[in-house]
Specification:
22% strand, two-stranded antiparallel sheet, 50 residues, alpha+beta
């Protein structure tokens, strides 16, 4: 059986960077709002009024 070479697929994975996740959760817990780009990078941190 001869197989044709398969073209690598461009799949988006849902891998979470644990350091980024922890930093984001800590900021949210301390009263900050974290805004991310669609690629998952943190772009803006806003202090929320209490």
């Amino acid at each position: 059986m001869i197989r044709e070479p398969q073209k690598p697929t461009e799949e988006k994975t849902n891998v979470v960077n644990l350091a980024i996740y922890r930093a984001k959760k800590a900021l949210e817990r301390d009263g900050f709002e974290v805004v991310e780009n669609p690629d998952g990078k943190i772009t803006l941190v806003i202090r929320l009024a209490k």
